[in-house]
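Readers of this paper often ask what the protein records in our data store actually look like. Such a record has a labelled line for the sequence and another for the backbone structure tokens. The tokens are whole numbers drawn from a learned vocabulary of local backbone shapes. We quote a single record here, exactly as it is kept in our systems:
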Amino acid sequence: MNALDSARWQFAVTASLHFLFVALTLGLVFFVAATQTRYVRTGDELYGRMARFWGALYAINYAVGIATGLVMEFEIGLNWSGLSRLTGDVFGAPLALETLIAFVLESTLLGMWLFGWGRLNKKLHLALIWGVAATALLSAFWVMVSNAFLQHPVGYVLDGDGRARLTDFGALLTNSALWFALAHIVMAAMLTGGMFVAGVSAWHLRRRAGGEQTELFRRSLRTGLHNALVGLFFTIGFGYAQFGPLDDNQPTKLAGGEDAIAQQAAMVAKYGPGDYIPGSIVGASLGIMIMVANLLFLVLLLARLLAIRDVLSTRRWARPMLWLLTALIPVPFLTAIAGWIVREEGRQPWAVYGLLKTADAVSPMSDGVLLTSTIGFTVVVVGLVVVDWWLLARKARRGPGDEFLPQPLPVREEISV
């Protein structure tokens, strides 16, 4: 494996696994915020317990996901110096805004929310979680602004040194590769969070815990299924909506048959010799994503109908659907990786489409060094994923408690003399 292959595999593993954290975090935070809103508006303590329970799972995923994001940023600077040198002044600006404005503010608000239960005014505390949700969305926005530049570079000029200089920040924000893709990802996150909530709730309802917990997971199941179904509907819609911009911005990505031959010839004439048609994995990933999305939509629609009058949680003949919902928790994560392959692998052989080839973007490092770092970073990131899922499964199995609430101090017994 040469240096280029090692660098690509390293970033592919890190970025795809990091995105799994992002999808669940973004999907859960709005669920938690909406649930806490119901708690504040109705005064129903059960909604408060729901918000704390799902908020604890959100916090676990967020905390571990930060580490994978730091690894990914380190890799960009270490392995892709050519990319940073040529276009870092352009695509680096949105990433800096994501870190300084969105990420730092999001972490601060989340810490205040975690430790503010029972200590802050309810409405002020509610504003904190909505602030976390807003900054999480803002973080996704800035990352996608940067990624959209790699897909379709706009708003720049090349100076005398051959470096890209940002000349039109507004062009970055109106990039045709941005908005449908951003909406697609946000809705996919809504699907992921909804499926996670529904699957965990279904697991608890199969155990028939009884009492208040049963009602808590019934409500969670209904809302989770609703969010997943709505999220999937719009994920499919915004996915198809991207085909138009793709044909204009990256005509080689989905080219096949005679069109692929024509596009290859056109690219060779424009950019010189090279293989400009992506591998078959792009078309296969797209086909899998579409097929799974359609099948999952039918399953979620049936489950949502069965949950209207709690048939799903009260009728014995409906229990297999509870098993199925729990088993389907990983599906949105797997389709997210398929979508990532379509977007990123489909851009090859370009790091910045039409501007910088991936082979020219990699750092001048030896094959052995990059292979060693690939193995090391892969072990670290996969280990973080395993730890995250172990912590999530452990907390999910335990069920809700008095998360984040201040505990009374132990009573000190005075000894009479």
Q: What stands out?
A: Residues 413-417 have pLDDT under 50 and may be disordered. The longest strand covers residues 156-158. The radius of gyration is 24 Å.
